UniProtKB/TrEMBL annotation:
GO terms for biological process: proteolysis. It comes from the Bacteria. InterPro entries: Leucine_aapep/pepB, Macro_dom-like, Peptidase_M17_C, Peptidase_M17_N_1. PANTHER family: LEUCINE AMINOPEPTIDASE-RELATED (PTHR11963), PEPTIDASE B (PTHR11963:SF20). GO terms for molecular function: manganese ion binding; metalloaminopeptidase activity. Belongs to the peptidase M17 family. Residues 311-318 form the Cytosol aminopeptidase domain. This is Leucyl aminopeptidase. Keywords: Aminopeptidase, Hydrolase, Manganese, Protease. One of its GO terms (cellular component) is cytoplasm.
Length: 464
């Protein structure tokens, strides 16, 4: 089902958003048959409840907004109504709840309804809610549809298994996106990575059946420069430090950073933001073969820093490092990396929060407010300088997998920061990229994380 709003017509069903406190007064103002129907079906206006009611003037629908205690424990509450209501077109009605919503709250709820209509149907038809929403008055429908399309792209890319989403397919997806929006794109593939000085991307991906590559997409000719770098490890076996079967099970999502930046890029281009966008994706598969890179190998990066490999399963930071070094050579106004990088980040904040590291106080403030407006929660983590010694092995400039297990997300972020000259302008997101369980507006599976918060923050940070 397309993630778009519908146009109101004679068949559109009015939808009333109610709290438990409002319910009795609202019922008293309706036909007696509506109140009787609601009572008979036990509707209490708790968060997540929805009911279609027959009435003499045509059907009406009610959805529960719940209590403050219920609402604080989740988001996209209106999206629950879409899951509970039968097929049809619905239009939110003015009332105590709707009229009290701030514009950003109303937009977030409308977006949640759209996102709830997503289904990954490449391999099997999926049952998705058939309740469609008329764009509420006052929301920017085109903007929300563009955001939903970007999120759908991210989810599709992550959900696709590695057999159909290897480096070649990821390149094809990036090229399709470039074609759709008139962007330029080039790919550096296989041995050309060595000739053009991307040695760590080559080392990580050289053992795979599909050659490693660096994708470089550009769009826009005026305005501030924004560069997005996304980890595109299409599958991660762990390399010679082979993962266990349980740990390997979800590794099709290890290109979640690439999927996120491509989804965000789609939003930016669809909304025609006045900036110069560059997207860099090192696309590899970390496989096991006779020519796999090995523990205790020392690799020389594009930047010239040497890296001792103490775990071949810490490969994401290696491919990102070469891409970041390239991005840094152009000195963009804002440089952001996104990656499913460490288990430490997942353990620290769980799958629902997007931890990020930045030295840019303006960006941090804009992200915090943007996260609230977009219902896309983030959590700031520290670039803790005293931990720099943990990533310095002595035999080389850097250690890709410090021993001890402490502060894994922080040391990974510090590692990446070494490849950026103007570190205050650099921001890194260590995302999970996956919803373990379905929730309103969020199907189980691949997930865009922090992209909507970033989209909200960009105008303030880049003075757009």
């Amino acid at each position: 089902m397309p993630l778009t709003f519908v146009i109101a017509d004679d068949a559109t069903i009015p939808l009333h958003l109610l709290t438990p406190e409002d319910l009795d007064a609202w019922c008293a103002a309706q036909d007696a048959s509506v109140g009787d129907w609601i009572a008979r079906h036990g509707f209490t206006a708790a968060a997540g409840e929805a009911l279609l009611c027959p009435a003499s003037g045509g059907p009406v629908a009610v959805a529960g907004w719940g209590s403050p205690a219920q609402r604080v424990r989740g988001r996209f509450h209106l999206a629950r109504a879409a899951q509970a209501l039968p097929a049809g077109s619905y239009a939110l009605q003015s009332g105590a709840v709707v009229d009290a919503l701030a514009p950003e709250q109303l937009s977030a709820e409308a977006l949640g309804w759209l996102l709830g209509g997503y289904g990954f149907d490449r391999y099997r038809a999926q049952t998705v809610p058939q309740a469609r929403l008329v764009a509420p008055e006052g929301v920017d429908a085109a903007r929300l549809e563009a955001i939903a399309a970007g999120e759908a792209l991210t989810r599709d890319l992550i959900n696709t298994p590695a057999a159909d989403m290897g480096p070649e397919a990821l390149e094809a997806a990036a090229r399709a996106l470039a074609t759709e929006f008139g962007a330029a794109i080039e790919a550096t593939v296989g041995g050309d990575l060595l000739e053009r000085n991307f040695p760590m991307i080559h080392a990580v991906g050289r053992a795979a059946a599909q050659a490693p590559r660096l994708l470089d997409l550009r769009w826009g000719t005026a305005g501030p420069k924004l560069t997005l770098v996304g980890k595109g490890v299409c599958f991660d076996t762990g390399g010679l430090n082979l993962k266990s079967g349980a740990s390997m099970g979800l590794m099709k999502k290890d290109m979640g950073g690439a999927a996120a930046v491509l989804g965000l890029a789609r939003m930016i281009m669809a909304l025609n933001l006045p900036l110069q966008l560059r997207v860099l994706v090192p696309a590899v598969e970390n496989s096991v073969s006779a020519n796999s890179f090995r523990p205790q190998d020392i690799l020389t990066s594009r930047k010239g820093l040497t890296v001792e490999i103490n775990n071949t399963d810490a490969e994401g930071r290696l491919v990102l490092a070469d891409a970041l070094a390239l991005a840094d050579e152009e000195r963009p106004d804002l440089l952001i990396s996104m990656a499913t990088l460490t288990g430490a980040a997942r353990v620290a904040v769980g799958p629902d929060l997007s931890p990020y590291f930045t030295g840019d106080e303006m960006l941090a403030a804009a992200l915090e407010s943007g996260a609230v407006a977009a219902a896309d929660p983030v959590w700031r983590m520290p670039f803790h300088d005293p931990y720099e010694t943990m990533i310095e092995p002595g035999i080389a400039d850097l250690d890709n997998a410090p021993k001890g297990g402490f502060a894994g997300a922080i040391t990974a972020a510090l590692f990446l920061r070494r490849f950026v000259t103007d570190s205050p302008s650099y921001t890194h997101f260590d995302i999970y990229g996956w919803n373990p369980t379905a929730a309103p507006g969020r199907t189980k599976g691949g997930a865009g994380m922090a992209t909507r918060a970033l989209l909200e923050a960009l105008p303030q940070v880049l003075s757009l």
